[in-house]
From TrEMBL:
Protein name, as recorded: Glutathione-regulated potassium-efflux system protein KefC
Keywords on record: Antiport, Ion transport, Membrane, Transmembrane, Transmembrane helix, Transport
This protein's encoding gene: kefC_2
Membrane topology qualifier: Multi-pass membrane protein
Protein family (similarity comment): Belongs to the monovalent cation:proton antiporter 2 (CPA2) transporter (TC 2.A.37) family.
Keyword hit for RNA-binding: no
Length: 543
């Protein structure tokens, strides 16, 4: 979808009507999202419900809402690019499962639909093998928007399973771009060559501008500009897919030291715009009895799709838990399926009713996958023994066991707070503290500076079973996401750890939750930062 400003094409009264409609849409989304969140489920389920409720009430998607949704997806892909490294895409455990999965699932799903056509089921009976293959191809994709939302909420974007899932999704996006280019006859124009040559040359200038955008309101505006102008619109002008442009521009900034800060500055804006995306799915579907029944039938293949992801990633030496969490992140249908079906419908290969079917099926899989991912670690613990029987015996470097012998204090999360705690303790009690972080690049940075930092995932139940923590007297949980610290505490307690545990929190209600779980002490970063600063000043003025 081309991103444009709706007001340019409307009179003032009609623009006011559009704004009023969007206010109704977003108000409904808030009410539904708030209600769902009180049930301890992800708000995006509520946003999807709001779209369908509005649809049933007679409302339809508007051009402004579609623009908001498109902006959200573009910023999302730009944000993914900021965290993505080319090295992650060329790993066998990424490109191989992605390629094999899309081939196998397309074949299996199309065969399933042709079989249903034999029984004269509505919509299926009219499918040729070519049409069935196209719909099967559409169903083989998993949702980038959903996976990133789930991984960000759980603080797992940097985890191994998070990186594998995102890598697979990017590979799928590449396949989708190739398909759209071939099927629509849209080929890159002469400007595409100039764009490919110009981007590396402009990179130093882009970095120079980023460095001088500092930390204020210019930083998110910088990201907005490069995602939409240098990314989306420049690639569209060159005959390439705009979303791919946003992703590539983001990847160009990934090595920069301010990439993480840039991503955080766009977070709230991106999340608000993505509400429009989830609303548009429900509002765009043409709800009929036939389309609902067919969508429910298609949802039956989700377990097969998820199992395929698990088997393929497991074959490429990922641990059982990593494979399972990767598969759960991808256990849905994708918004790209809608685009593929739209192309097929425009060429007459499938009826337009299939668009409604895919839209409903996408929504249903989101609703199913949200609680599934929320409880993924709990589910893994329950079926761990079964999965371990089929686990690969060979380990990747990121998943090797951690040795904590002779360690008395362990710090999980070696960001600024964790690093500060490490330095303070190590200054007075050297060789008794170790840091643990999930990011290889963070671990490498600390090792180069002479710190004892190891790579591991504190939310991994297997980690707590493998590690020997009998000598550890204190564990400090300084991970940035509250739910990471919560689950790490649960696993620590379940492993029989008897020492002290302390954790950081951003808000009083988070402190209360940790204290109710039996933690020894909590540190409210925002409340106590002032006390720490005052103590520093006092020591400076009155040594």
């Amino acid at each position: 979808m081309s991103i444009s400003i709706v007001f340019r094409y409307t009179t003032v009264p009609s623009a006011v009507i559009l704004i009023t409609m969007e206010l109704i849409y977003f108000a409904t989304a808030f009410v539904c999202g708030f209600g769902i969140y009180q049930l301890k489920l992800p708000p995006l389920i509520g946003f999807l419900m709001a779209g369908f409720i509005l649809n049933l009430a007679g409302y339809k998607s508007t051009e402004l809402l579609e623009t908001i949704a498109s902006l959200g997806v573009t910023l999302l892909l730009f944000s993914i690019g900021l965290k993505l490294k080319i090295a992650n895409l060329i790993k066998p455990q990424v490109w191989a499962p992605a390629t094999i999965h899309i081939i196998l699932s397309s074949a299996l799903f199309s065969g399933f639909m042709l079989l249903l056509g034999v029984f004269a089921l509505p919509l299926f009976v009219d499918l040729s093998w070519q049409s069935a293959l196209l719909v099967g191809f559409a169903l083989s994709f998993s949702s980038t928007v959903f996976a990133v939302k789930v991984l960000e909420e759980r603080g797992e974007m940097a985890s191994l399973h998070g990186k594998i899932a995102i890598g697979i999704l990017v590979m799928q996006d590449i396949f989708a771009v190739i398909f759209l280019a071939v099927s629509t006859g849209k080929v890159p124009n002469i400007w595409a060559l100039g764009l490919i040559v110009a981007l590396p040359l402009f990179r130093p200038i882009m970095y120079w501008v980023l460095n001088r955008s500092k930390h204020g309101e210019l930083l998110p505006l910088f990201g907005f500009f490069f995602a939409l102008v240098a990314g989306y619109n420049a690639f569209e002008f060159a005959g390439l897919k705009g979303d791919l442009g946003a992703l590539i521009i983001g990847m160009m900034f990934a090595p920069h030291k301010k990439a993480g800060e840039l991503s955080k500055s766009l977070l709230s804006l991106k999340d608000i715009l993505l509400v429009g995306f989830f609303l548009s799915i429900g509002l765009s579907a043409e709800l009929t009895a036939h389309s609902l029944v067919v969508a429910l039938i298609l949802v039956l293949v989700i377990p097969v799709k998820t199992l395929l992801y698990y088997i393929l990633t497991n074959l490429f030496k990922l641990r059982a838990r990593t494979s399972l969490l990767t598969a759960f992140s991808l256990a849905n249908f994708s918004e790209f399926g809608l685009i593929v079906c739209a192309v097929a419908a425009s060429s007459g290969m499938v009826t337009s009713e299939w668009l409604a079917v895919i839209a409903i099926a996408v929504s249903i899989t989101f609703v199913i996958a949200s609680p599934l991912n929320k409880r993924s670690n709990e589910l893994y613990v329950k079926i761990e023994r079964l999965l371990l029987k089929f686990e690969s015996k060979t380990r990747l470097a990121e998943e090797l066991p951690v040795n904590l012998n002779d360690t008395k204090i362990v710090i999980f999360g070696m960001g600024r707070i964790g690093t500060g705690a490490y330095e303070t303790i190590n200054a007075t009690h050297p060789d008794v503290v170790a840091g643990i972080d999930i990011k290889p690049e963070v671990v490498d940075k600390h090792i180069k500076r002479g710190r004892r930092v190891l790579i591991a995932d504190a939310t991994d139940p297997d980690f707590w079973q493998r590690v020997n923590h009998s000598h550890v007297e204190m564990v400090m949980l300084t991970m940035p996401k509250h739910m990471q610290n919560i689950f790490a505490l649960e696993q620590l307690q379940a492993s029989g750890y008897k020492g002290q545990v302390t954790a950081i929190a951003n808000y009083p209600d988070q402190q209360k939750e940790l204290e109710e779980m039996g933690i020894d002490s909590t540190y409210n970063f925002y409340l106590e930062a002032g006390s720490g600063f005052a103590e520093h000043v006092k020591q400076t003025l009155f040594p």
